[in-house]
Amino acid sequence: AELRKASKRLTCHKRYKIQKKIREHHRKVRKEAKKRGHKKPKKDPGVPSAAPFKEELLREAEQRKQRLEELKQKQKLNRQKEHEKKRKLEAKKNAAKIKEKAEGKESSGKSKAKTNKLLDKNSKKSFCRELKKVIEASDVVLEVLDARDPMGCRCPQLEQAVTCSGEDKKLVLVLNKIDLVPKENLEKWLNYLKKEFPTVAFKSATLMKDRTMEQVTKRRARVDLSRTTECLGSKCLLKLLQDHGRTQNKAIQVGVVGFPNVGKSSLINSLKGVRACNVGLARGVTKSMQIVHVDKQTKMLDSPSIIADPSNNALALALRSIIDTTEESCSADVLEGVDAILNHCSKQQVMMHYSIPDFRNTEEFLALLAQKRGMLKKGGVPDVENIAKILLCDWTGAKIRYHSQPPGSQRPPPYLTEDKIAKMQECFNLKNLEEENNNTVQALKCPSPASSIIFQSAGMTNGTIEENKVVEEASEWESLETGQEGEEDFTESDDDQDDMEEEEDVREVNQTVSSTLAPALVSLTHDFLFSESEHSTSLSLSLDKTADEDDAYDFNTDYV
């Protein structure tokens, strides 16, 4: 049996109460209208019989009525045309969908080829390919090292490829981020590294302005830019490269290489004085070789990051590999990396730096840090995964000050013989380089040893330069595939362009109709025999009514 609809009948008590409320509301509205001094609009008396030219006035009024009717008919026709166009477009789209289904195999093959091409730009093999291009094209290779862990930023495979290339290539080490380590530690590292390769102390300038960017306003200049925009060591490095170019009697190409987040692109921007390369906290921002002209005799070649070999220890993979912290699948790698970092640091210094009480393990440390910073999930549960990602970004970025000690004894790697060391150091004025480095260290504002965390380096980090040795991880690029498919969906087809053109035509028709209708309505209203004051009173009353409609009685509520 079918269910009956609910009855709309009310009890008499409720019905009378509603009627009473409505009467009170109307009374209230009338009182407010009286207070404002508004009167009811008078009815149109029409054209009096004694008025001169009565027939002409009536004839004009009829003509205006006819014009309005014609305009309404035109609007109807335009609407019908719009509906027909829409139907045609829908029919075209349906036909296109049917064709796509019929030719699904071919289209899927083409789309896969497109995604593969786009994936190839972001893949590790592409990074290795571009890096090899930079090494082959450059006369001088600058290996950028993080001054906090210089040994961990050195790649033996890269150094061997440059020194054993057989060509007259030079390798220069650049100690970047020197403002994050104590002066004594920096001097020790400079003395250690200069025995193997020419070493330049450098501090990149951050917050570089782009050529298209406007100047920072006074209100936005609250940030202390004295520390961030200052660049040290750029003159020393430029002079070193220019002197080498003069000895070669040609314009030289300088390749800038290194692991992620050591400051390769920032170094080029500092030498150029303008933001020529993209810079970011995310790892792997630079994905292809980029040429920047510093002067007439020097070209800088920006390169993608060196790919860390999976055989490295957990610490090296945490600090030097390209980990996409936005992916959910990498949370285990991030937690493992944070655990490795904490195991290689002084526990008391970490507690002092983060102002956190004693902790038993990494999970407890992350939970305490998340509670302190207010990063909580539902129910007050600490957000351990996100705080681990932030901590990892802080350690690879320029936020945390830590330093590692150089090895006690000088043991050059097996590929670096005395002859090769002498070959790398020739054509450079090492005395001037040492003096410039000393001037840079003296002009630098370094942190005190007490405020810097002592860090135990894990040694050199192995990297993969050969494209054939790279092993791609399928899970790492799944998110990129979905992103590229989404981008393909947003590309405009021919049907979408037809839609846009037809919508523009419809807008033009509506504008023409409104432009012809407006003067006709204005002339019709002005020819009536109402005064301006009466017309204004009627308009104001109608506006008052719409304003008071918000206070109208709600029939759905029960006022018992």
UniProtKB/TrEMBL annotation:
Its main location: nucleus. Residues 1-117, 474-502, 539-560 are annotated as: Disordered. Coiled coil: none annotated. GO terms for cellular component: nucleolus. GO terms for molecular function: GTP binding; GTPase activity. Residues 53-83, 91-109 have a biased composition (Basic and acidic residues). PROSITE patterns: G_CP. It is found in: Nucleus, Nucleolus. Residues 1-42 have a biased composition (Basic residues). Pfam families: GN3L_Grn1 (PF08701), MMR_HSR1 (PF01926). Residues 128-309 form the CP-type G domain. Keywords: Coiled coil, GTP-binding, Nucleotide-binding, Nucleus. This is Guanine nucleotide-binding protein-like 3. The lineage of its organism: Eukaryota, Metazoa, Chordata, Craniata, Vertebrata.
